[in-house]
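Hey,
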Amino acid sequence: MKQRLVQLEVLRYNPDTDSEASFQRYEVVCQDEWVVLDALNKVKESIDPTLNYRWSCHMAVCGSCGMMINGEPKLACHAFLRDYEGVIRIEPLAHFPIERDLVTAPDDFMEKLKRVKPYLIPQQKRSLDEGENRQTPAQLMKFRQYSMCINCMLCYAACPEYGLTPKFIGPAALTLAHRYNQDSRDAGRAERQEVAATHEGVWECTFVGACSEVCPAHVDPASALQQMKISSSIDWLKEHLMPWGSK
């Protein structure tokens, strides 16, 4: 089995002892089919047990191991070593406070996710006796793609607007709002619009598209946000230019 020596340059930060973050270099022998997460695990197991980072599934499903790899937001479990040459620089996700080493604090994202109410708000309560509120395949396909988000926050690390304007609700949260707005079982769009259809919401997005480029689940948040802009524009036209159409 082919092996090679891999050099990792990892950002280290201990809030108890460090005044600022600094890079530490490691050399580790890795198998050619390994991913960056495997290399980090080898470092932690055999070289430096003090290294801190998050991971769980190793299958690009949980979203835990998001980090900056050579300046690009990636899942460490989905970044193959064979795709990199020279020193691999590994940093915490951009635009988030560092808790320790490669671990960032997701509090801002979680607060914004809560604000958009990413859950079904039913039109009316149904009893168990009434059975399931079923959908057609066409109704499902309207939102299925946008339901695939794994909350990895790579899109936030890639988004220049979030980096410049921290109040921006951001790609993932707004995409999940769009997902529920498109659900035929949901009646909560008006409530979500109070957050989404604002300058801190979809109108802060300048359609750079970086969020969709880095999304490991191919959710395409850039598309979701542009669709929300169109819907919000139609709402405005109905309210101000065609008041009879808004009733």
